[in-house]
Structure formats: C-alpha cells, structure tokens
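Duplicate of #3305? Posting structure anyway:
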C-alpha cells in the first residue's frame, strides 16, 4: 500500500508518526510506504542559515529526536550558540535556534551551497534520521524558494508584509492578519516525486495540519490541487479543529484572515473539490459537507500519545477503504 500525506510541522509530524506506528503494529501493513509532502512556506534564512521548520519538525519527530514537551526542536537541547550571537548583537533574537538544531541548519546550508537541491538535501537529512529504513519518504513540496508572508497594519495606517515566522513566533499571531502573500508560490514547480506520489497513491491523507499556512500552501503549488482532484485514491482528512478551536496554534487567526469560519465544516469545505471523507471530533458530529462523507471519531480527536494517534490514523484508513468501495 502506498500512502501519501500532506503535512505541516507539529500536527503533520505527530499524525504521520502515529500512522507509521499503526502500520508497523498491524499484521499485513508493515510493508506500506508512506510519502510525506511537506510545507516549505515557513522556511526562513536566519544568521545565514537555511531553516525549514516544518521539514525539521518532521525529521525530528519521525526520527525520534524531537523535544516532546514542545513538539518541535531537538531533545536535550542547549542554547550556547544563540547566547554568543546575542552577545554580538546579531539579530533576530525572537527565533530560538538550539545548538543541536543549528547542526541541521549548517548541514543543510552547506549542502545547498554545494549545489544540492532542497529535495536532495532533505533526503540526506532523512537518511541520518533513519526515515527510509522505516518506509517514510519525506519530500519538500517544491525546490523553488517559497516564503509565506503576512500583511499586517503598520503604524501609519498603511500595510506592511512580514515573514510568516515573525508573525507567528514573534507576535504569536496577535497582529490582525489582513491576508497571506506567498512569495514565489505561483511560479513554483512541485518537487520531484510530489505529483506522482499523489497520483499513484492508494490513499491520500490530510493530517490535522493548519489548513491555511500548512496544507493551504502545499495546495497552492501548481499541479498539486489538480493531482488531488484527479487521483483515483480516496482522499481522507482529519480536522485540526475541535468545537471551532484549534487544538494548538493559531489556525483560527489564519482562517479569519482568509474569511473562513473557524469550524470543522468550513475547514473541510476548503478541500471539498477533492476530499472524499472528513474525520471529526465527536463534538463536531453535526458537521455536514456537500460532497464528502463526514465521520465522527469514536473518542476525542486528540493526538495525546503515539498509540492514540495510531488509532486516529487507523480510523482514517478504514474510512478510505469505505469511501473507495
Ligand atoms: P505547525 O506547522 O507546527 O503549525 O503544524 P501543522 O500545521 O502540521 O499542524 C497544526 C495544526 O494541528 C493546528 O491547527 C492544530 O489545531 C492541529 N493539531 C495539533 N494537535 C492536534 C490534535 O491532537 N488533534 C487535532 N485534531 N488537531 C491537532
Ligand atoms: Ca509550520
């Protein structure tokens, strides 16, 4: 079985880890291949280093090196490099880069400077984390530089665009977002393997990733949405909202910026041109979508630990079988 998932950072990574756990512990499913198409709109260059937050969160979570308490960054992390940078007055200080994490960014930046593509670099990083051995293929959505920017009000009554990370990390999404502008997206080409992974999948899954700034960005890569509309595989999504609220993060602020209600129904509606089934929390059992089957999960839709997440993934796969029949 070939499973393709479209993922952002923490929500996507935790879901795929649970999915892999379910496959590995279920007779007959261990051979299944999982391809993860990762959002790269969050990418940023800091201190001359290329940082890919969603790809890194996927690497660390799926490779067993994540700081579990926060869901991103390296475990057993220190901040001595950042202290030195602060002593030199090197900006910005609002984005925390741990010492071990910096090792990833140095390796990535070095390989990029030697001419490797982001896909090739990601494959190298993934080998270190053992992903191919675990039948996980991690693909950035594109090798074209793409950056999500947020348009906010400036002090003079005008508008200015800031990098998504500045809005999310520095301002905690508290500045009202007027709109998102994704530099480079309309001219981006899907990375090698991305469109085929969608077209040739047996199942496509949308983890409970942010619908606007994670999945929404991947959907904006030319060809991706058409591939999803055209694939023979059932497409099943998992809601990132419970009773209208994101489980973590600021998806509600992102939805407000694009004029979409913060409900499981409205998020499912963003995918309705290709979605076959939508797994929601029991609290959202009343959700109705015109073209997709809506199913409440048989418990809280919370990825509280790996086995619990595995049960959510298993339910999504059963739904895929049901809608394909
Ligand atoms: P990010 O790039 O690190 O922000 O991560 P993603 O975009 O992959 O995922 C963020 C989304 O995951 C948020 O909108 C959360 O509401 C959602 N999320 C996180 N944990 C859970 C969970 O346990 N259950 C559900 N249903 N959604 C979750
Ligand atoms: Ca992200």
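Output from current build:
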């Amino acid at each position: 079985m070939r499973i393709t998932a479209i993922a952002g950072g923490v929500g996507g990574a935790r879901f795929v880890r649970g999915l892999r756990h379910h496959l590995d512990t279920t007779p007959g499913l261990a051979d299944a291949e999982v391809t993860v198409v990762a959002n790269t709109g969050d990418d940023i260059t800091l201190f001359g280093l290329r940082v890919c937050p969603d790809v890194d969160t996927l690497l660390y979570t799926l490779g067993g090196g994540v700081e579990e308490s926060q869901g991103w960054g390296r475990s057993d992390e220190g901040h001595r490099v950042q202290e030195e940078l602060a002593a030199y007055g090197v900006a910005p200080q609002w984005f925390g880069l741990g010492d071990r994490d910096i090792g990833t960014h140095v390796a990535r930046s070095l390989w990029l400077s030697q001419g490797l593509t982001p896909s090739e670099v990601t494959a190298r990083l993934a080998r270190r984390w053992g992903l191919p051995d675990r039948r996980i293929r991690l693909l950035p959505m594109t090798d074209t530089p793409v950056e999500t920017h947020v348009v906010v009000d400036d002090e003079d009554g005008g508008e200015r665009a800031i990098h998504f990370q500045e809005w999310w990390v520095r301002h905690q999404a508290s500045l009202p977002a007027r709109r998102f502008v994704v530099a480079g997206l309309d001219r981006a080409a899907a990375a090698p393997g991305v469109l085929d992974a969608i077209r040739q999948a047996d199942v496509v899954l949308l983890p409970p990733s942010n619908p606007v700034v994670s999945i929404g960005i991947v959907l904006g890569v030319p060809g991706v949405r058409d591939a999803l509309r055209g694939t023979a595989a059932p497409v099943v999504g998992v809601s990132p909202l419970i009773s209208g609220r994101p489980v973590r993060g600021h998806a509600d602020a992102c939805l407000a910026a694009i004029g979409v209600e913060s409900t499981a129904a409205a998020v499912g509606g963003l995918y309705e041109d290709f979605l076959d089934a939508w797994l929601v929390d029991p609290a959202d059992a009343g959700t109705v979508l015109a073209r997709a089957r809506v199913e409440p999960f048989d418990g809280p839709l919370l990825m509280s630990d790996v086995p619990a997440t595995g049960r959510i993934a298993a339910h999504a796969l059963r739904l895929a079988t049901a809608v394909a029949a």
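Confirmed duplicate; merging threads. The CA atoms of residues 135 and 238 lie 22 Å apart. The pocket of calcium ion (ligand 2) is lined by residues 8-9, 39, 42, 53-54, 214 (CB under 6 Å).
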